[in-house]
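Proteins fold. Shown next:

***
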Amino acid sequence: MQSTNMHYLKITLFFITLLLLTTGLQAQTSLVTVSAANASAKDVFAEIQQKSGYRILYNDEIVPDELRVSVHAENRSVKEILNDLLHNTGLIFVMPSDELIIITKSEYVREQQEIFGTVTDENDESVPFANVILFLANDTTRFGYGAVTDYDGYYKLSGVKPGDYRLRISFMGYKTAYTDLSIPADSREPAICNFKLEKDISLLEELVVEADHPVMKVDREKIIYHIPTFLKNKPVTNAYEAIREIPGVMEQQGLLTLIGTNGMTILLNGQKSSLPYEQLMETLRGIPVSRVENIEVMYSAPPQYNVRGAAINVVLKQISDENKEQDVWQGETAAEYMQHHYAGGNGRVNLLYLGKQTSVDASYSYRNGKRFNSEDLTAAHTLQGRVYDITQHSEGRSKGQNHTARLALQRTLKNKDKIDIAYTGMFDDGKSDRIAGTDISGVVTDTKTSSEGPSSTHNIKTDYSAHFGLNIGADYTSFTDRSDYLMQNSFRNAEAGTEELAYDSRQKIDRIMFYANQSHPLKNNWRIDYGINYSGVRVKNRSDALKDGVEYEDATFDTRQQEHIWNFFAGFSKTFTDKLSAQASIAMEYYNAKEKSRGTEKQLWNDVAWFPTVNISYRPAPMHIFQFAVSSDKRYPSYWNMSPNMFYFSSYGVILGNPYLRPQRDYSVGLTYIFRQKYVIRPYINYIPGYFAQLPYQSPHELRQEFLEQNYTYRRNIGLMAVIPFHIGKRISSRFIANGVYWREKDDDFFDIPFDRETVVGIFQMNHDIILASRPDLKMNISGYVSTPSATQGIYDLGASGNLSGAFTWTFQEDRARLILKADDIFNTRIPTASIDFKGQKSSLKAFQDTRLFSLSFVYRFGGYKEKERKEVDTSRFGGL
């Protein structure tokens, strides 16, 4: 099996390398096809630029975010398209060269003209803060107009009257440059004066929406990706898939991870969720990608987000006041057919009502599927001096369905304060059946297991944002889970016959949370932030177990947990110069938890922890950005794993709860360097004392393998990540990500076999977006990753893993409809082999998780669909039955 996996991984690498060597598909042409209805003008400009090869220059004052345009042009020149596009917008365009288009206001080129351009140095880098002065040509002592170049070396002089002038550019360390120009009285086009102090290339970074790199910018502690442009050619339909496309984000065993961090929190419009992880992912899958404006990556989130450590913030599009002139209904619907080993599917519908001050957001999604999985376990178990050879083959089938409904109301008051109220309901029902054959040195046991039961989540969230910097809110979540489990063991070679275990398990969680944060802007670009948040939880965990019809006391329990977490923080931020800004804060957290079981109450934890956060952003030049981040966090174990449960899943394997689990601490330091707004290099260090994970242990007292989640002494990672985007020809946009990491895991109290293990792991990703045709609009994506066979997890040694995926996208009906054909994990190599050969512990597990997927999706937008913000809920510690 291992050699087969390596064969598939070699094929994966071959396909990825083949794409790198592919030449351009087709040269650009002068005629293009564009179709858009009530779309963002910036998105349309980006599409024209991508298809024509022109660079389009404008600034946000000229082309605001809320400007919407419509156009339908087939095989027409760019000039014709722009003439139609800008009609009745008050904008015009000029083409000063064969490669550049400038968008400006028509009023600037009538009686008074506009002069603008860029200033660069001898290294082709923009020169910010250069002095630009316009004098009368016949009297250079008379100052006419003045400006200062911005970060990108861009300047603009508006309201210039016809006449003869001399333009002077000066900056410390450079020779003063001059040029003479004349503004004719009948001119209708602005004057373009690009000063090339040493060389003749203007960089126009950030102001130009370029097709050769993702639209990315840095704002203090955030790396911001503009999703409409970044995902323009990608087969993405929802917010979950959009997050997966962010450089550095990986999906491993169903979990989204951010390379270089020990974990991350996903925010929605800056709000922390209180939904369980699985339910939060379902909610993200129900949000159309067309509603996502930006995705913000923060390696050290400030405490006013009510989170610590790394975070990814999904920012949804909002409706401006100018677009609320009349009440409108908008929406989007989608359906997907999925083929794993068995068929499944999902569908959703999203509706949005937009009023002048009130909006209502309603959504419903449904998922239904059936999955197959299998495992092959071999082990050598030493018991009382004898070695028992164990082989086990198991396979199972599970099916389930999920309903998610959401209703949200937002009201904007006259003073611009906002009130949000949202309800989210999630309802799951699942069933699984499994068979296993276990051979322990010739004694064979056949096992049948079945499990079924529903779960439900209800969440109500309110939020109030005041115009003077106050943000308060409250959140209530109710979660219930029920599971009925039956295991039957039949012994082939023994007189015992059969054995039966039955579990009736329940979990009920009620959690309330409130927060209040205040921000004060001060003089000289200072700002202070402070706040408080509280979380109170009541948990009921119960399991009634029977063994052959008689109460099984070892697996029966009824516990009550009560938890209180108070968090206080204070911090500041300061913009020292246009190049340097900093943010720092300190948070104090008091956490207290008690558990009552069988009439006895015990303290789980009662302590205080401090969490510093530091972010420093430095931009010595427009093409160079440095972000230094220090973060700290705490992660709590799930409520169910802290209960005294004993759950047999085969005649050899058992999962044990650990009432002595404690929270882990996370400390991270990282430096991110960004070059030309697209190349990224990030060294990082993570130190996690008390890191917890589930590991197996072959019992020295009986023939069983025990799976127990427990705390390590610490885990430490030191790594280096690099993101390199590039192009192959005009139609292939690619991105290569490499991550090399050294990690060390140490546990001085792992049963009687403490470990201290070190290793080096490499993870390499490649992504290719390919434009197949403009008319019809056909695009293709090929992506994959490979992880080296050197990873460890506790006493586990993990084999190589990888993934090769592809997709075709057809966009039609004036960009309202999309048909997407996908293939994910084509060679089914995502799950690595896990083996153990450590201090007498010997086993090997080869798991088949049915991750190969073929799917067909259809997405349709109606009513000029616009997007509305939604807020979410955290249930990462719920469940586990």
Observations:
- Confidence is low (pLDDT under 50) at residues 11-29, 199-214, 320-325, 864-873.
- Residues 2-20 form the longest helix (19 residues).
